[in-house]
Amino acid sequence: MIEVLRTNNPVRLDYAVVLLNRAGCHPFVADRFMSATEGGILAFERRILVPDEWETVARETLKQLDAEMATLSDDAEADPEADEDPA
C-alpha cells in the first residue's frame, strides 16, 4: 500500500475516496478513527492508501480532484459579491 493523499479536510477526503473508488483503485483511509483519541482537534491528518500497482491511476485521478478544487476557488474569487444581499 502506498499513500496518495493526506488531508484534514473531510470534504476533500470523502470526495477523493469517491473518485478513487470510481477509478477502481481500492482506496483505504488510514487514521480515520484517530479523532477518538485526539479529541476532534484534527491534529492528525487522514491518509488515503492504495495498492502499489494502482499508484499511477490514483495519482492521475487525484489530479481531477485538485483541478475541481481550483475551479471552485477561482469561481469564488471571480465574483466576491455573489454572496452579498442585494437589499
What is this structure's SSE topology?
Blueprint: E1 2-7, H1 10-22, E2 28-30, H2 35-38, E3 46-50, H3 55-78
Antiparallel strand pairs: 1-3, 2-3
Description:
With 87 residues, the protein is α+β, with helices and mostly antiparallel strands. The protein has one domain: 2-Layer Sandwich (Alpha-Beta Plaits), CATH 3.30.70.790. 47% of the residues lie in helices and 16% in strands. It is built from 3 helices and 3 strands, in the order βαβαβα. It has a 3-stranded antiparallel β-sheet, covered by helices on one side. α1 packs across α3. The longest helix has 24 residues. The chain starts with a strand and ends in a 9-residue tail after the last helix. The relative contact order is 0.21.
Question: What would you say about this model in short?
Answer:
With 87 residues, the chain is an alpha+beta fold.
The number of helical segments is 3
Low-confidence stretches: none
Rg, please? 16 Å
User: How many distinct beta strands?
Assistant: 3
Number of domain modules = 1
CATH architecture: 2-Layer Sandwich
Q: Give the CA-CA distance, first to last residue.
A: 55 Å
Percent of residues in helices comes to 40-55%
**CATH class bucket:** Alpha Beta
Predict the CATH topology: Alpha-Beta Plaits
Average pLDDT over all residues:
82
Strand content: 15-25%
Within CATH, the superfamily carries the name UreE, C-terminal domain
SS-derived structural category: alpha+beta
Order of helices and strands: EHEHEH
